[in-house]
Structures are given as C-alpha cells and as structure tokens.
Design goal:
The structure holds three protein chains of three kinds. Chain A is 37% helix and 20% strand. Chain A is globular. By secondary structure, chain A is an alpha/beta fold. Chain B is mainly beta. Chain B contains two helices and ten strands; from the N terminus they run H-E-E-E-E-E-E-E-E-H-E-E. The longest helix of chain B has 12 residues. Chain C has one domain: Peroxisomal Thiolase, Chain A, domain 1 (3-Layer(aba) Sandwich), CATH 3.40.47. Chain C contains 14 helices and eleven strands. In chain C, the strands form two sheets. Chain C has a nine-stranded mixed sheet. A two-stranded antiparallel ribbon of chain C has the order 5-6. In chain C, a hairpin with a 4-residue loop joins strand 10 and strand 11. The relative contact order of chain C is 0.20. The chains are: A alpha/beta, B mainly beta, C alpha/beta. At the A-C interface, strand 3, helix 5, helix 6, strand 8 and helix 11 of A face helix 3, strand 3, helix 4, strand 8 and helix 9 of C.
Chain lengths: 371, 169, 391
Amino acid sequence: MQKVGIVGVGWYGFRPNTREVSFREMMFEASTRAYADAGNINPRTDVDTFISCQEDFWEGIAIADEFAPDPLGGAMRPTMTVTGDGLQGILHGVMHILSGLSNVTVVESHAKPSDILTMKEIIDFAYDPIFGRIGAKNVHYLAGLDAVKYMKMRNARREDFAKVVVKNKRNGLKNPRASFASNLTENDVMNRDYVIYPLSDLDIAKFVDGAVVIVLASEEVARKFTDTPIWIEGIYSATDSTLELSSLGEAKYLKIASEKAYEMAKVNKKEIKAAFVDDTYSYKELQHVEALGLSDNAVADLREGEFEEGGKVAVNPLGGLLAEGRPLEVSGLSLLLDAIDYLKEGKAEKAVVASWRGVPTFTGAVAVVSR
Amino acid sequence: MSETPSGTPLKEEDLKKVNTVVYKPKAEYAYSAGQAQSKFLLGLKEKKIIGRKCNKCGRVYVPPRMYCDDCFRPTDEWVEVKDEGIVETVVASFISWTRERMEKPEIVGVIRLFPSSDRDWVFPGLFHRICADFEDVKNMSLFGKKVKAVWRENRVGSIDDIECFEVVK
Amino acid sequence: MRTNLYFRRVAVIGAGLTLFKRRLLETPQELAWEASKKALDEAGLELKDIDCVVIGSAPDAFDGVHMKGEYLSHGSGGIRKMSSRVFVGGATGVMVPITAWYHVASGLCEKVLAVAEEKMSPARPHPQSVFRYIWDPIIEKPLNPNLIWIFAMEMHRYMHVNKITKEEIALVSVKNKKNALDNPYAQAAANITVDDVLKSEVLVWPVQLLDTSPVSDGAAAMVITSEDVARRYTDTPVWIEGVGWTLDNTEWTGRELAYPRYLEHAALMAYKMAGIERPNKEIDVIEPYDPFDYKELHHIEGLKIAKRGEATKLLKEGVFDKDGDIPSSPSGGLLGVGNPIAAAGLMKTISIYWQLKGTAGRMQVKKPVRTGLAQAWGDLMQASTVIVMRN
C-alpha cells in the first residue's frame, strides 16, 4: 500500500466538561490548531475532502452531520459523515486519498458526553431491540460477561486487571490530555466495590469531552506540509457483527483487522515496540493485545512486566483511555494522538493503534503507524 | 431485474395480529449553548437581535457564530441587526409536528433582516413565525414585504421571546 | 467526451430491492438481508466472496436503534469483515455507492456489498415526529418545526423567484406516479391528474399531500467490484465513472433557497471525473431526487440539465417523459415508489443501473442509453450526492 501521511493534528478539551464552548465551537478550536500544525494551511483552498465521525444519539440531534461542515472549513465542499470511531474515519480518509479522489483529507471527531443526561439509557438503546434490551440495570453487563469468559480462558484474577489500571493511570501522569491519571496501588483498585463483576469503577474508563482533527495527505504531497510526517502504513477495520454471531472472550474483530493491516504495512509483528489499544475496560487491553498478535498470553506477559516501556511491547505508555477518559467516537483518535506523540518523541519507530467502539459492539479498527 | 419483490406489507390493523416490541428510549441532553448562542439568547431578553460580523468578507451571521465558514477565521465583532426585515419566504402549516391536523394554520417563514439588500445571496436570516392570514400566504403577497418583530412582554432569553414578525407599512 | 482512465475502474455487477411499502413486517436486518441476497444472486457471488460492506441508513431514530450501523451489519453481511456506515441525511442513498466506489478504487477492497435500509414505520407517534430533532436544538427546535415546513418554504421561494405555478409543478407528481405503475417495487403508483394534486389535503401550503412522497420501509443493495472481478462475472458491467458530493453550511435561513448551489458543486465534481462537459447533451437518463415534486425541477437545474428557472418549460415540452429526450425518474422516483430515506437514493441508483444494463423491464426508456445519473439530497437544504454511470 502506498503510505498516507499525517501532516497536522489538533485537539481541544479532554476534560470532564467543556461548558465554555458549544460542540461546534469545540470543533473549530480543534481544527484551527490542526491547520496551524500542518503549516498554516487554509482548509478553503488546501483541503480536498472532509470526514466527520459522529452518531446522532451521542449528539442529541437527528442528522448530526448537518453541523459538520462549517466549523471544519468544509462548507460547500465534499464533506461526509462516517458513523463510527475516529479511527474508522481515518480508514475512510486513507481510502479517499488512495483512490485518487483527494490529496488532502481532514478527519475529525468530537464528543460532549457531559451534555448527555441519560447516558446509560442511550447505551441501552444500542442493544438489539428484540433480544438485547433485557431491562438490565447495568448496561456494562456485556463487558462483565466478556471479562469473566476471558478470566476463565487465561486463569486470570481481578488482580491482573488491577495491574492494568495501575499501569495506565500512572503512565498518564506525563500526558497533558490525561484528566484521570493518578498514582494508585493494586490494593486501591481491589478495595473498590464492583460496578459489575469483576469490574470496579476504576476498571472502567470515565467519559470525557473532546475534539480531535487530523490532516491526512498523500505520500507525494505530505512533504510539502511538514518535514516530519507520521506515516500510516496499513489500516483496516472489522466487525464481528452482533452478540449472536460473535465470540466472547476474544476480540476477533481486532484479529481480522490487524492481520490485514500488518499485511498492508508489510510489517512483522515483532518489529512493533509500542501499542496504543483501547482499554475502555481494564481487561479489554489484555484481550486486545492478544488479538493484535503481540502476545500469546497477555496475562502472563503482564505479570512479567512485558507491557511496560523496555519490555516486549509498551502498551499504552501514555495512559490510554483509563487515564485520558473515553470521548465516545473520538477514542480511536485519542489513541492515535498518543501514538503520534510517542513516535515524535523518538521512543519507537513503529506503533500499532487499535480502537473499539464499546459495548454492545464488536467493531474495531487497527492502524500501523511509523516515523 | 429480479423476479418477485420480497417484503410483507402490513396494514395498521394488522399490527395487532403480529408480535411487536414497544420501547421508549430515554434520551435527554443539556446542550451547551456556547459563546455565540448564549449571547444571542441574552440579547433576545433585551429585545435585541445580536449577530456577529466577519470583517474580512463582511458577512453578518444571525444567529451569531464565533467563526466565519467562508473565510475560516474567527468572526470579529458583535453587531446588533435591526428587528426588521423582508419576507424571503412564507408558508402555512395545517399539521403539527406529530402529523395531527390543525384547524388554524401556523404561519412561518424566513425573514432577511436589515442591514442587507435583495442582491445578497447570503444574509442574516431568521426562521420564525409571521403574523398573517392564510390568504396572504396563498396569494404570495407577503413575499418581499417589510416585517418587524413583535416582542413578548415577559422575555426569558429564548427564540420564543419573539411572538412573530408582522407586516409594517 | 472522455471516459476517465485516471482512476481504477469500478463496476456494479448486481443489485436488489425489497418492496417499498408504508409498513413491512420484516425487521431492519431482515430487509437488509433480502436486498443483499438478491444483489449477490444477480452478481453470482456468495457472502464469503465479499470482503467489505458499506451500509447506509438515515436517522437512527426511525428504526429505533442507536449505532444503527452495528445493528444492520448483521443483516448486511458485515460479519467478520470490514463494515462501516456512512450518513449524509437524505443524500445517504447515493453516498453508499460512492463510498463503495472508493473502497474499491483505493485498492483496499475488491468486492463490496453496499446496502441501504430504512424502516420508518416503527416510529411513534408518527415517523414525521422524528424530524423534530434535526433542527438546531436551541434556536430552531423551540418553534416546533415540522420537516415539511422547510420544504414548503423552499418550494414557495422557488415558485416566487422563477414565477412558476403549482399546476406546473404538479406535472412532476403526475409523471412519476404514472411511471411507477410499471415498477413492481412501488408503493404509491397511481394514475392521477394535476387536478387531483391540487385537490389533495393541504399539509403546509404550498405543499399538498400528492406533492409529497410517502413514509416507507424498504431496503436496497448493490454489489460493486473491481474491473477484473467484474469481467469474470458478467459481460455487461455498469461502470461508475463519476462521483461527487457537497455539504453546504448549516445556515439555510441565510441563503437563497431558490437554487441548490451545493448540488451544482457536487455535480461539477462528478462531471469532471466522468469527462462530461455539456450535461444536457451527454447524459441520457437521470434520476434526480424527488421527495417532493418541485424538488425534481429544483435539482434538474442544479445538475445543469436545464438553465435556472427553465426546468418547468422543458417539463411541459415533454423532455423529461419516459419517451422524451432526457427521461427523468423512469422508475417512478420517490413520489411513485416510496421514500425510505437511505434506501430511496440507492433505489434510484439501481434504476439507472437497470436502464444501462437493459434489464429495466417495462420501465426501460425508449432511447438507447449510454450515460446515466442518479442524485440524492439531504440535511437542511445542504447535502447532495451525485453518481454518473456508463455501460
């Protein structure tokens, strides 16, 4: 695959609430920063297509894409919405560029969960209307079932999940976007009540407001914008469909997506020294690392400290969603931002980014990025 | 082109004979108004229509915007536009938002507020009720007429603070 | 006229539709499956041959499921494959094949199943009520607007600026509903007169009941592949030669509504790709989006098939009839077939596919066709998607 370059990034928020701005103003702030980062480009003349990642029920507006173009500079331009995670939006952006349709594509996503008053009910609304809405008091039930299955498969204990929480929240202390970073011990996590067995409230990423805008450019054009583009070498997504057809305990969707992404990037998994994977629930990080083929038994490797910097592969060295919060569909872009920061600091040559759309979905995207 | 179309049509009465699952979603939001709309709402409380101007292209946004979507830069200053304008278009609705029939039609339309001219393709425009009769809508005499806002006595800072726009001589 | 050789060649090799009706028994997933199965059968492929799935569906509130794309992936074959959903309001129906096009043209996918589905009937108290939430929540919603208001406002402005009467506009409804009599999938086919339109229930003056398309349930699907695959499975592939789309700004209250400038921009993008310089001479058959009768005329002007304000003149001359120079909506359009939002746009694209393939049955237009166009519209007078195909 021809490479696609990330030539500008901008973000705003990453705080529990952002009352000073409406969601449109937040998008404008993030996109202004992205265009400045890309060398002060003017979206009205330098950008070919625009992609926004949002879902109606997160926004509280039916046909949410009506509000997408203006704050990005995409009014009267080819602007569209992909209802998916930001990383899936990047996949579409890569396809715009590789198809020859565009040379420069902007991908954005934003979230204001602080505006949503009935979050649990909305998540419940995503479950199958006939079989899935069982009147569960706790919409995280699917994660609980998945976690228990995983624990059985790997002989894992709650302590292992607590290790992930401790690692990520500590790693987040150096990340300016990590509102929930802190110095905890395993005992702190173990002493909490369950939200849903085996997960405590610390095992579940909190929601956070934020907007991220990424400027992509084709290989030929990328160097006009910056001397240090970050390259996307491979990217793919997959869905394991709905509960009836998918398998609990493993993240097949990432297995399928990563195999394709590695093939596109012509990369050997062993070359990857840093991974930025969805950790909305602590156990998910382990499941995802295995699905990405970076570890055969994530629990064993975690116990050996292989996921810290200097180990086999640094997993979420900048904190992940447990430290930064989960900004709904921006989550994949949040992990991508972490990967970009990490690569720009020179800490690794290649990294893999993997997103997941949260319960009750079995959908994720994988990207291989390099410096 | 394929053979027989698939799909089982039902009449409304049939709904009683098949299995249906009823669900009422609970979706409540507290939309952040942000800077621009907050100022606009506060202005309405004082019988003012506040807009925002981009000095580069001269465009006045009503309701106000903190950024200009043509120039892609922040807008520069708050401006007060007149609460008078020209009727761009007007319609008479006999159905409510739940598709129920209404006896007396609701008259709504788009008003191009001053300062602006009829040669402008983009202008400060407001969608609101227009105080008029169905006949005036039907014979299209309202197009191009000058109208002025009728403000309510008790205003709270909402678009509803204007009762309607009525024709002035 | 040049055909585009700059992009990888992408073709449509199969398509399927379900019945379009006010209320169908099937669940959204079942509808998606019915349409997908038909499309795969025509293409001669099975689900395991497909590598990527593209789904299109408009507001989640209709079917009543949040993250509708995930839910629909089950019925659209998106199982252990790349699957995503795109959304541009009503323009989604044509955005779906455009998205499938770039999936293949980028080289990441070879055989794409593109599905559009909409089930509006579950919504209570009436599917209309879902449209209360498309407006700006702070500045517009408190006025309790109804979707038909915005169309009525645009229609009235269009009539005022171009000095057109309701009688002239009603001819589109008459034409399309009559065309739909030959369409086995149609919900609202009928033999009506201009008088019938003018006597029908007044909804939001100037819009009357027979000026509008009905609320519907339905699904549509297409199989879109690379050139090599297409040539293996059929000797009559239909090539996607031009794609274009545009989203105008949100301030519909601050722009001239009588002309869809965003459609012109989208059309020019597609025409450039397809090498079309004189649309009214080089395009043989069109399916412009017609949720309301005046919209077809509005869009014909935006597509530059007719000069501004002149679509009505050509309509009265019979140019857009099934046996005219530029047949428009030979399928019966949304007015005749039904309007399950996203599926409707894909239905129009499929209609062009059938025309170009010669398999439109009784809907086939008389003249020989080489180039066809389908167009969809959406949002608050903002979005348009255009696709140009050739045989």
